[in-house]
Design goal:
The complex is a heterodimer of chains A (81) and B (406). Chain A is mainly alpha-helical. Chain A has 3 helices and no strands. The longest helix of chain A has 15 residues. Chain A is globular, with a radius of gyration of 11 Å. Chain B has 406 residues and is α/β, with parallel strands linked by helices. Chain B has 15 helices and 15 strands. Chain B has a single domain, classed as Peroxisomal Thiolase, Chain A, domain 1 (3-Layer(aba) Sandwich), CATH 3.40.47. The two termini of chain B are 17 Å apart. In chain B, strands 5-4-6-7-1-8-15-14-9-10-12 form an 11-stranded mixed sheet, sandwiched between helices. In chain B, helix 13 links the parallel strand 9 and strand 10. Classes of the chains: A mainly alpha (81), B alpha/beta (406).
Chain lengths: 81, 406
Amino acid sequence: MQREDVIKTVNNFLVEEIEIEENLLGEEALLKEDLGIDSLDFVDIVVIVERNFGFKIKPEEMKDVKTLGQFYDYIANKVKE
Amino acid sequence: MRRVVITGMGIYSCLGKNLDEVTKSLYAGKSGIDIDPARVEYGYRSPLTGIVERPLLKGVLDRRSRVCLAEEGEYAYMATAEALKNAGIDMDYLAQNEVGIFYGNDSSAKAVIEAHSTAMQYKDTQMMGSGAIFQSMNSTVTMNLSTIFKLRGVNMTISAACASGSHAIGLGLLFIRNGMQDVVICGGAQETSYLSMGSFDGIGAFSIRTDDPTKASRPFDRDRDGLVPSGGAATLILEEYEHAVRRGATIIAEVAGYGFSSNGANISQPSDHGSATAMRRAMQDAGVMPADIDYINAHATSTLQGDAFEAMSLQALFGECHTPISSTKAMTGHECWMAGASEIVYSNLMMLNSFIAPNINFENPDEYSKHLNIINKTIEKNIDVYLSNSFGFGGTNSALVIKKIK
């Protein structure tokens, strides 16, 4: 799966399931501050990622993931593994 | 003594999705009962149920609110939004004034079962998602409504089986009367999913008259064979009388008396003595005599024993008065945790529109109900004072006396 495919899938569930406005979805957008993703939303994102990409997000691997661009990279790398 | 009045009400049930629809159904004697195919598939002995449509809340509530709401919470939101609007209370008022909530609810089985199924499938509790815990607890209705409506007063769920909604109103009355709150949202909610009622069906309590679903619930009738489960939600806004007058609110009725008791006996079998104690206490609290009661909304659920015991206690207390009686459960089925609140809404609608809704399907009395004045066709009738009964498993009894404000 290419990074572009990851972006498309992630953006789709952020808009459709987490109900984040599409115009906020930029590479530099901060997950918490700009997109308003809180700890409960993140539980649902873990569930959606497992259903869409077939792996489980480990909290310790997310320590340095602050922006949406970094989140795309994290998922793309995990999918490659 | 501080008087307590009702200044708003809302309803979402198998008789309609709002006060207007429900008023028409009550007057027409329309049943809300049908067969649920999912219950046949699941292995129910009886597939009969009140049919309640799930409300569409996308675009009405934000995602976080929707994710945390269980089925019965959705119904409770609809009923409470209508009740607050009816009372002239908006979000600005709620932001500036302390309002409490007592709501009857005694299960959230669908949420629990679905979360369990997810865990079994994935062997991972996180896959239940973020809403499961907030949907699964018994207090799911009050925890969600208090968050959605930003409430800052007393906040708790009342779990008292099929008397939950009635006790919630009784406690709202006591909190306001005693000066602890000026406004309390009271009500009852009941889930209707096939996942919620299997164990109740399992003890053979439900009617199996499936050939004509609208005839299945027949309280006090000789040929009754069990109750029909149902659900939805009902909300009443209770308010201190002077507070309501100062606010310029329309006063619907006065909550004049609350009576309660426990049978101290069998877990499922009702008692004529216990229910009579609750009724006597409610009338004493309201300062009325049996002869003052213009209408009784009976608990009668269409079970063999329950209706017989209630008929005995009604005969003992009201036999000489020939008081008009009906059980609206003939139309709604048994709305369980919600019933004690919904039947106050139904009775208030009768009081406001001067009619008594019929105990449909009451065709032949049995040896107990033959003494009672059971209304089986809609009649025009002025109601100044009425009594509403609610009884539940474990022998919990609640009775409320409601008066027209003069």
